[in-house]
Amino acid sequence: MSSSKKSFTKKITLISLLYATGSGALHAADDAAIVITATRTAQIADQTLAPVIVIDRDVIERSAAVDVADLLRLHAGLDIGRNGGAGQPASLFMRGTESNHTLVMIDGVKINPGTIGGAALQNIRPDLIERIEVVKGPRSSLYGSDAIGGVINIITRQAAEGTHGYFAFGAGRYGSRSQNLGVHFGDGGSRAGIDASAYTTDGFATRQDAGEERGHDNLSFNLYAGREFGPLDVELRRWQSAGNTEYFDFFLTPLDQDFRNTATSLTLKAAPRDAWISTLRLSQASDEIDQNQGDDFAHTRRNQLDWQNDVQLDARQLLTAGLMLSREKASSSVFGTGFDEATDVNAVYLQDDIKWGAHHLLLAGRHTDHDSFGGHGTWNVEYGFELSPATRFTAAAGTGFRAPDATDRFGFGGNPDLKPETSRNLEVGARQRIGQRQTVTVNLFDNRIEDLIEFTDPDDFLGPIQGANQNVEEARIRGVELSYALNLQPVSLRVEGIVQDPKNETSGEPLPRRAKRSLTTSLVYEQAAYQVGADLILQSKRKDSAFSDTYNAGYGLVNLSAQWRVQKDWRLIGKLENVFDKHYELADGFNSAGRAVFIEARYSPAP
Predict the structure, then answer these.
(1) 14: exposed, middle or buried (C-beta count within 10 Å: 0-12, 13-18, 19+)?
(2) What is the DSSP string of 545-562?
């Protein structure tokens, strides 16, 4: 590596990592995860003021999950609603908020559609993912619309030093088959790589009143290339998922649709001064669905510019300021109602991250100029106090908002006069480290959401009079989260629980598809040659819909996993899902997978 490249790398490391590790008495282990999503800058996960979850590559491989929704449901408070099996629509309800109140990114690029609903979690293959960072609580001050419940940043796989390749193939119940391969190269200031994943399944009957199997095909890839040019680092990335999903409509007619999701970015990073990092990201994301037995479709294409500047004022203070410009085009035709709309959004954001002694203070604010809704301000204030090297208390307040999407305004039942949904969240928490191997965390939160968008007149949904979207609802979600982590090699244990009350304050009814009580447990025993694990999911009953009195019963699931290192570079990975073959519903009238086995062989030589 040239001297100029060494200098550039040193600057980046000093600003982004030394600040993350240099202050604070609550010391983390040497292998503690570094996260960037909570503050847009590098921090040790255990020292962030916001509650975070990091799902790393080891956990992803052990889970043998089909998609990201399967991974997220292993954590309490991340409720999943799904209309059947693999490839069917999956919705995430984080901490009791709506399914479109969580911002989802791939490598920092927003992939939420501009048409309807949340990001297509069912189309994101875990084989392409290095780790997932989940930040709970409002983050609109840093990321804008949709981040009321939290943010999920899915970070794809990338190169280490040297050349490394792998391939894997697997098969299981429901005619499921997968093939994965990847090659990565890293050499000082240069890196490049490609990962590809093919998954197909015959599926099962997604609807309880229909006996025909509904299959799913998914071909995904991720490629990237980056290089340092003196004081400038340039990187190009492209993630894509495309395929076909079979399903039943409301009248149990068998249909299928093609999908394609992409996230492309060009990132330029420089350190103009010793204490200043400037990052410019130009990105494009698309979300496309085309129904094959009719003319229905939903397309979103979003171009975005994000210019972020991090300035280390001194050893205790990191200032982040940025500019974000978004140009979105959304078009759709559903039930004979269509639209073709453009949306422009401009925003500026500022964050001050201050550490002094046992204190940690974060102040963040954002002004968003939306071409349909005018100016909108959001903010976060977070404070942490470390009573001792093992004990920390936190308190936070923040606001969020979600601008109505094009379907809310112009689709079936659309209302162009809608107002943005807004939220105010209050939170207190504590973290206690017990020795070097145990950690207990508790968080209490109170989230008020106003101007919730609700479709009215549901009885006329298929009649001659259409209902309309209205800002008619208010919600309040209060809850307490607890987690316990034990790392006592060769055994590791994680337990997470949540008790919450997601309530519609206007009607007095519980918010649908959200459990009041959830518990998840992960237990792993690992030796050099093998690993065995078990995951437990417990959820209480959930109201199915705002338009019905139906409740989906509570359920308990046990999944088992095992890995066996057959030879130095070969592993067998097995998963037994739903061990006791429990029948349960994540949406009324839709089936869920029964007991299922999936076996994978993986070749991955050490770099």
Answers:
(1) middle
(2) -TT---EEPPEEEEEEEE
Residue 58, H or E segment: helix 57-63
Cβ atoms of residues 211 and 205 within 8 Å: yes
- The secondary element (H helix, E strand) that includes residue 503 is strand 491-504
If 0-12 CB within 10 Å is exposed, 13-18 middle and 19+ buried, where does residue 461 land?
A: middle
Residue (of 231, 226, 322) closest to 265 by Cα position: 226
Structure-token match 């085009």, residue found: 329
The 3-state DSSP composition of the chain as helix, strand, coil percent (nearest 5) reads: 10, 60, 30
How big is the CA angle at 257 (ends 254 and 259), to the nearest 5 degrees? 155
Nearest to 519 by CA among 74, 56, 69, 51: 74
d(CA 524, CA 379) in angstroms, rounded, equals 40
Asked if residue 365 lies in contact with residue 350, where contact means CB atoms within 8 angstroms, the answer is yes
DSSP state, 511? P
DSSP, collapsed to helix, strand or coil, labels residue 315 as coil
Helix (H) or strand (E) segment spanning residue 10? helix 3-13
| Cβ atoms of residues 124 and 239 within 8 Å | no
CA–CA distance, 275 with 264 (Å, rounded to integer): 29
Neighbouring-strand partners of residue 421 = 402
pTM of the model: 0.93
First to last CA, the chain: 19
**Do you know the residue count of the chain?**
607
Structure tokens at 541: 């009953």
Q: Which residue has the tokens 């940690």?
A: 360
Phi/psi at 15 (5° precision): -75, -45
Structure tokens given for 48: 């962030």
Q: Is the peptide bond before 502 cis (omega within 30 degrees of 0)?
A: no
Q: Could you tell me how far CA 586 lies from the centroid of its own chain? A: 19
CA dist., res. 466 & res. 457, Å (int)? 7
Give, as one character, the DSSP assignment of residue 589: T
CA distances from 414 to 43, 115, 207, 591 (A): 42, 12, 28, 31
Whether residue 597 contacts residue 169, with contact meaning beta carbons closer than 8 Å, is answered with no
What is the C-alpha to C-alpha distance for residues 490 and 576, in angstroms, rounded to an integer? 22
Tokens at 499, concatenated: 């008790």
What are the mean pLDDT values of the chain's consecutive 10-residue runs (607 residues total)? 43 49 40 86 92 95 92 96 92 94 96 89 96 96 94 92 92 96 92 97 92 95 95 96 94 94 98 92 97 94 98 94 97 87 96 96 97 93 96 97 90 87 97 95 97 72 59 91 95 97 90 95 95 97 89 96 94 96 93 95 87
446: tokens are 């109170």
**Nearest alpha-carbon partner for 592 in 537, 546, 511:** 537
Return the exposure string of 568-579: e unless at least 16 CB atoms fall within 10 Å of the residue's CB, then b: eeebebbbbbbe
